[in-house]
Specification:
The complex is a heterodimer of chains A (about 775) and B (about 220).
Chain A lengths: L1 H13 L1 H28 L12 E10 L2 E5 L5 H6 L6 E17 L2 E11 L3 H4 L4 E3 L11 E5 H8 L8 E4 L2 E9 L12 E4 L15 E6 L5 H19 L6 E8 L3 H4 L12 H31 L2 H9 L4 H38 L11 H27 L3 H5 L8 H36 L9 E5 L9 H9 L4 E7 L8 E7 L8 E7 L4 H4 L4 E4 L12 E5 H7 L8 E3 L4 E8 L14 E4 L7 E6 L5 H14 L6 E4 H7 L2 H45 L4 H35 L10 H28 L2 H5 L3
Parallel strand pairs in A: 4-9, 6-8, 15-20, 17-19
Antiparallel strand pairs in A: 1-2, 1-10, 1-11, 3-4, 3-7, 3-10, 5-8, 6-9, 7-8, 12-21, 12-22, 13-21, 14-15, 14-18, 16-19, 17-20, 18-19
Helix pairs in contact in A: 1-2, 2-8, 2-10, 2-19, 8-11, 8-13, 8-19, 10-11, 13-19, 13-20, 13-21, 19-21, 20-21
Chain B lengths: L1 E12 L2 E13 L4 E5 L6 H8 L7 E6 L2 E2 L5 H10 L1 E5 L10 H12 L3 H14 L15 H14 L4 E5 L7 H16 L3 E5 L3 H4 L4 E6 L2 E5 L1
Parallel strand pairs in B: 3-8, 3-9, 6-7, 7-8
Antiparallel strand pairs in B: 1-2, 1-4, 4-5, 9-10
Helix pairs in contact in B: 3-4, 3-5, 5-6
The chains are: A alpha+beta (about 775), B alpha/beta (about 220).
């Protein structure tokens, strides 16, 4: 074994260019695949930590209006209170209501940004979360009780048992009845605070689709039979409740373990996992590994060709073909082992970068577990066999006669392989580059598309107490006194953060004519601040604040209802007439990625969560302080929280930015690996042809003649690769672009660029080498052995 | 020991047969030292390669110890190379990445000989061939004569019955050539059958039989 190792290391030192090229390529390939494995195992581990996780399911609702299906992870209160008790298959049922983050006052300290859930007392029967203090049985029984997570307890009380301590949320005084362990980040919901459902005024009596509903099913439940029975009952319940809507309903149940990656619902308690993105990451990682592996195959064969003599001689002195194959595979194993070790080192550098790419807290320590060990082991063995098997097969066939006659006859089959490998690698590079550039231009197009509203220097302050609306007038006038403040407007909803859902119809239309519509509740002045484009009519007047009989529609809503400037403009949302006072152009409050839904703006509520401020310059520290001080005058406990609306809108393109970064990373690595492989290959091929080239020169060929003859073959391969890549790239990117309501057209200029760029890079990389050879004094090469 | 009957070796180039060996009939008994001579391209090396199972005849019958060598399996061939046939080449063909010791050891490893026994065999050979102080050197650090000594040591390490030498002195100057030929003579005296290909008339005389090969035909036998 040691002898073998010593010999192999000598071979490696002799062929160091190839070994270094292979090791760099393979270690990048391994590092990327390990990242992929870390990522996929993280994504697929969601919610597995809950006891009985395989028996927990969630109820969902489908709202169907015409061709439009909305998949909602929420259902009616009655699904828990009336339906669930009718089913013996349900061992425990719970509903959860997610509240906006709120301020918590504990003793004299204020804590902002805590995630709050309201839940039924059965919560801990379904989700058996371990308690640090207190017990799950009576934790949520009392309307004045509250359960907090260990991290919050640590932050506030240190190591003291906080059971019985008082905390104040908004104005409610509550007693801590339990402290649970924190949920791992791989949970589809997390919380710092859980309150009993009855702690919030009238929450239990909300009649709409509000609640996330979970069931713990009895062991051995016939899942399909139960789903069918329950869904049909749930459908009836929905149909009955929303009979005055022009909509139909469906119901579906999803296993807890599928929620993160596969839920059909449009939103969830935490950002949904994206299977498509996982697949993209996987494809890129595998492409990189494949490119590195084919480099290895190619270069191993080249390396083997320099060893034909050794291999032939081994046969003469008694080596069998199988022992030669073993030897060559051993070398491949050893080389990949080195690459794996290098890749682990590489990972320590790239993991933090990757983590910020995918926004996941992946840990390198995961690879030092048993499953990590076996994953590395299988990567190692599979790639070693992949990269070593073909060269071993080809090379072990070489015979002593080849050595004695000094020919490589039996390894000629590799000549077919080398061009196909170059074509394959180059095709992938063209494909990745084209995808990268297309994604980039689409993203730019989306970001630049006029939104129908003006977000320049608009910042929204939020997080104040519920009664701040009583001071709106003085806040507004005080803020307007700051020289940097150009305009101020209040709103309940935040642009970009999701509207409320309502039903609307023309006044006097039949009951089943109701259609769903999005709603932003705003103060007069809001439309002016955001510079909505008025199509006809007018914006709200200040005296209309709090009035529920006037609304403004967007263009889509006006079209849906068939309202124009000259028609009847009375609509019905709450069984009384409302007058449409104006129609604004569709504004893309969710960015240019999704189609604009019908929407109405009303000023019927006095409460607001946002103070929208347009500044005439950037937000300086000084201005920020002035604004916060004004708010604090009216809400002394105010913990400042603000965001630029533009950032919210840009956040909608995070997914595209991530895709672009993943593809960009893949393209760069793929180009590097293929260029490295091509360079090493060219060096070795040139070495073999030195004599021939020298003779050509002696016979009168010029450097240029030689250069052209050398490059012609390579160019031909690149053209074949482009022909192969083009249709696939065009098809894939058209498919991707068609997923957007607003998208660019496929650009042939980009395609051309994606071909020319790598061709140029290749020519530059290989060209200088060829030029050097072509210019060499031929006599040096004639004597070259 | 070796019996060749009507051996032909030809290559087909554009449906034209080009003969390297034509109707070769040859018998070699155990213990002989045969020299094959002839001009370049006469087919000497091809004949040696066929005898050494490195090449196959296109037609004819080859028997080694009464066993037919036509279409023998790869496994059997390996067995002959391990146990019966040793080779020496003009260009030595040592494995460059191995030391002298390792080069001699490799055939013994393939033969499955245990480490301790290998050590004894190699120690004896190194002493016999005067290579004791060179055992840790690589081939590139040796002179041509020394390399050929290692080549011979490697060839005889497995105690073959037949030693095939393809111009073993071709790359050496006369003194070294004589040393190598003396060594071959000694090995033959110890009982190894030797067939050598050579251009050198003087060295051919070391054999007890000279075969002349011209244009693929055994022309005369002295």
């Amino acid at each position: 074994m040691l002898k073998h190792l010593k010999f192999t290391l000598r071979i490696f030192v002799k062929s160091r260019l190839i070994i270094v090229t292979n090791t760099i390529g393979m270690s990048i390939g391994f590092a990327v695949c390990i990242l992929l494995w870390l990522y996929v195992s993280y994504e697929t581990s969601y919610d597995k930590h809950f006891e009985n996780s395989d028996r927990i399911v969630r109820l969902n609702t489908t709202w169907i209006e015409g061709n439009n299906n909305e998949f909602l992870p929420i259902s009616l209160r009655k699904a828990h209170t009336e339906l669930a008790p009718q089913f013996p298959e349900i061992e425990a049922s719970v509903q959860v209501f997610q509240m906006w983050t709120s301020q918590i006052k504990i003793e004299t300290l204020l804590f902002a940004g805590n995630k709050m859930l309201y839940a039924d007392s059965t919560f801990f029967k379904v989700f058996k979360i371990p308690f640090v203090y207190g017990s799950p049985q009576n934790a949520l029984l009392n309307s004045k009780s509250v359960v907090i997570a260990e991290s919050l307890s640590q932050k506030v009380f240190g190591n003291i048992n906080p059971i019985g301590k008082i905390i104040v949320i908004d104005t409610k005084v509550l007693t801590i009845s339990g402290v649970t362990k924190d949920l791992p980040a791989t949970s589809h919901f997390t919380y710092q605070v859980i309150l009993p459902m009855q702690a919030y005024d009238n929450l239990m009596y909300l009649g709409g689709l509000e609640f996330f509903t979970y069931f713990l099913l009895a062991p051995n439940t016939n899942i399909n039979a139960f789903y069918n029975k329950f869904n049909s009952k749930h459908k009836e319940l929905l149909q009955d409740r929303f009979s005055d809507f022009n909509a139909t309903f469906d119901s579906f149940i999803e296993p807890l373990l599928d929620l993160h990656l596969y839920t059909k619902s449009d939103f969830d308690l935490s950002p949904k996992g994206d299977v498509k993105k996982n697949i993209l990451v996987a494809v890129i990682a595998l492409i990189i590994l494949l490119m590195a592996t084919v480099n290895c195959i190619n270069l191993f064969i080249v390396m083997g060709q320099n060893r034909i003599k050794e291999l032939g001689m081994r046969k003469v002195i008694g080596a069998s073909i199988s022992s030669l194959k073993k030897q060559l595979l051993y070398e491949s194993l050893l080389q990949n082992l080195i690459a794996i070790i290098v890749s682990v080192g590489l990972l320590t550098v790239i993991l933090p970068i990757f983590n910020s790419f995918v926004q996941r807290p992946l840990l390198i320590s995961s690879i030092f577990t048993l499953s990590g060990f076996f994953t590395l082991l299988s990567f190692w063995i599979v790639t070693s066999i992949m990269s070593g098997a073909y060269p071993a097969y080809v090379l072990s066939k070489s015979t002593a006669i080849d050595v004695l006659k000094n020919n490589n006859a039996n390894t000629n089959s590799k000549r077919m392989l080398t061009p196909s490998i170059v074509i394959f690698q180059f095709a992938i590079v063209v494909f990745l580059l084209f995808s990268l550039l297309t994604v980039r231009y689409q993203l730019e197009f989306l970001k630049k598309k006029p939104l129908g509203l003006n977000l320049h220097n608009v910042v929204s302050f939020t997080n104040f107490n519920r009664d701040i609306y009583l001071h709106s007038q003085s806040i507004e006038s005080q803020l307007l006194e700051i020289p940097e403040v150009e305009d101020v407007a209040f709103s309940l909803h935040t642009i970009g953060s999701g509207p409320s859902g309502q039903g609307i119809k023309l006044y006097g239309a039949s009951d089943d004519a109701g259609k769903s519509i999005d709603e932003y509740r705003v103060y007069p002045g809001f439309c002016k601040l955001y510079k909505f484009e008025l199509q006809w009519g007018r914006f709200f007047r200040p005296d209309e604040l709090g009035k529920d009989d006037v609304i403004i529609l967007n263009e889509s809503a006006a079209d849906m209802l068939g309202i124009d400037e000259h028609s009847e403009k009375i609509v019905d949302m709450f069984d009384f007439p409302m007058r449409v006072i104006g129609v604004v152009s569709d504004f893309m409050h969710q960015g240019a990625k999704s189609k604009v839904n019908p929407m109405e703006l009303s000023c019927r509520g006095l409460r607001f969560w946002n103070i929208n401020i347009r500044l005439n310059s950037n937000l300086s520290e000084n201005t920020r302080k002035k604004i916060v001080n004004i708010i604090k005058e009216h809400d002394p406990d105010y913990v400042p929280k603000y965001q630029f609306i533009n950032d919210i809108i840009n956040g909608f393109y995070d997914n595209e930015s991530q895709v672009m970064r993943i593809v960009g990373f893949g393209s760069i690595v793929a180009i590097l690996i293929s260029l490295m492989g091509l360079l090493a290959l060219t060096i070795y091929q040139l070495k073999k042809r030195m004599k021939e080239l020298a003779i050509r020169r002696i016979m009168g060929a010029s450097s240029i003649n030689i250069l052209v003859s050398l490059i012609k073959k390579l160019l031909k391969q690149l053209i074949w690769a482009s022909l192969l890549a083009t249709p696939i790239a065009l098809w894939v990117m058209s498919y991707w672009l068609n997923g957007y309501p607003y998208h660019i057209q496929i650009s042939y200029l980009i395609l051309l660029l994606s071909i020319i760029l790598p061709v140029l890079l290749t020519l530059i990389t290989v060209g200088w080498l060829l030029l050097r050879v072509a210019n060499k004094n031929p006599i040096e090469n004639v004597t070259y052995k | 020991m070796i019996n060749l009957k009507e051996i032909n070796k030809y290559y087909e180039v554009k449906k034209q047969r080009s003969f390297v060996l034509k109707s070769v009939n040859l018998t070699i008994k155990e213990g002989e030292f045969v020299s094959i001579m002839g001009p370049s391209g006469a087919g000497k090396s091809t004949l040696l390669n066929i005898i050494g199972l490195l090449d196959e005849p296109s037609e004819g019958e080859y028997r080694f110890y009464d066993d037919s060598m036509s279409n023998i399996k790869e496994k059997k061939k390996v067995d002959y190379h391990r146990n019966h046939i040793g080779f020496i080449f003009q260009a030595y063909h040592l494995i460059e990445e191995m030391t002298v010791y390792e080069n001699i050891e490799t055939p013994l490893i393939y033969k499955g000989i245990k480490n301790r026994e290998r050590k004894t065999i190699i120690a004896n050979l190194l002493e016999q061939f005067n290579l004791g102080d060179k055992k840790d050197l690589f081939p590139s650090q040796l002179s041509g004569g020394q390399q050929q000594l290692v080549g011979i040591a490697r060839a005889v390490a497995g105690k073959p019955k037949l030693l095939l030498a393809d111009e073993p002195t071709g790359n050496l100057h006369t003194d070294q050539g004589i040393m190598i030929m003396d060594l071959l003579k000694k090995l033959n005296a110890e009982g190894i059958t030797i067939i050598q290909v050579t251009h050198n008339k003087e060295f051919a005389k070391y054999g007890n039989r000279i075969i002349n090969l011209v244009d693929g035909l055994v022309e005369e036998e002295k």
